[in-house]
């Protein structure tokens, strides 16, 4: 019985972790892209149109500063970046934009 309870708790934790990891990562760009582009950053494909990029299937690393820097190198500076529940801070955005394509 204890083993079944432990397994059920572990499954619930994994389910919650998977749901959190699946939250889209969205970037609001400083300048619009020229048409639709699909850069890969932080281990995920972003779909960019105008001044918004979104990754619907992010990896655990997509919402990191590294993911932001990889995206900024390809499409330019960002104003915001991350899932709606935990966007990057202003200091993190500033660090990200140091890598932005000029």
What does this entry show, briefly?
This protein has 102 residues and is of the alpha+beta class. It is 38% helix and 21% strand.
3D structure, described in words:
By secondary structure, this protein is of the alpha+beta class. 38% of the residues lie in helices and 21% in strands. The chain has three helices and six strands. It has helices at residues 2-21, 65-75, 90-97; strands at residues 25-29, 40-41, 44-45, 47-49, 52-55, 78-82. The strands form two sheets. A four-stranded antiparallel sheet has the order 4-5-1-6. A two-stranded antiparallel sheet has the order 2-3. The longest helix is centred in the N-terminal third of the chain and has 20 residues, at 2-21. The radius of gyration is 16 Å and the shape is globular. The chain starts with a helix and ends in a 5-residue tail after the last helix. The relative contact order is 0.19. Mean pLDDT is 85; it is low at 2-20.
